[in-house]
Amino acid sequence: MRILKRLRMNERDRGFVLWFTGLSGAGKTTLARLLEPRLRAAGLKVEVLDGDVVRTNLSKGLGFSREDRDTNIRRIGFVAHLLARNGVAVICSAISPYRATRDEVRALIGSEAFIEVFADCPLDVCATREGKVEMYAKARRGELKEFTGVSDPYEPPLTPEVWIRTDRETPVESAERIMAYLAERGFVPLDVAR
Question: Over pLDDT 90: what percentage of the chain?
Fold first, then answer.
């Protein structure tokens, strides 16, 4: 009986990675902040790996060349993998501009536990959002080099598990859709997703 109970708990407590990708200002961090308490309320162990925070700590010293960006994303992916395989719900919020590197992270984590969430928002809208106006203005003037979406490419996902349009729905609506997807996949109970 104890073995059966332990198996059921392990099935319910399996870890996963919500991997947010999108332009700067698309709403990735906002959604991560909305989802974290909801997942905790569902009884999950949750960790958030925010791209800006990771860059300050784990990836300090890296620049914004393609090689450095890839290194940063691989580091985030590696930590997410370690956490998820130990039953943690991991929310990663990083621009992660290159499709091939995101695919590497998916392969490391495993498709059954990797949920790519595309925070899709037009660049012109992102450039008007709080905290982003001056950054985008500097990038457009050439003062910020290798800025994703302006002077460096962003490769949108082709088949994300969840595609949200943050310019067309509120953050709460987007969070609800993500929770519904997690419930559909069995990561959270149906009653918690509502």
Answer: 66
Our answer to whether residue 96 is catalytic in this structure is yes
Closest by CA position to 22, among listed 171, 191, 134: 171
Q: Which of 169, 175, 178, 16 is nearest to 92 (CA)?
A: 16
Residue 116 domain-assigned?
A: yes
What is the count of structural domains for the chain? 1
DSSP string, 54-88: HHHTTTTT--SSHHHHHHHHHHHHHHHHHHHTTTE
Tell me how many degrees the CA angle 117-120-121 measures, rounded to the nearest 5: 150
Q: What is the pTM of this model?
A: 0.88
Please tell me which residue in 24, 59, 93, 96 is annotated as part of the active site.
96
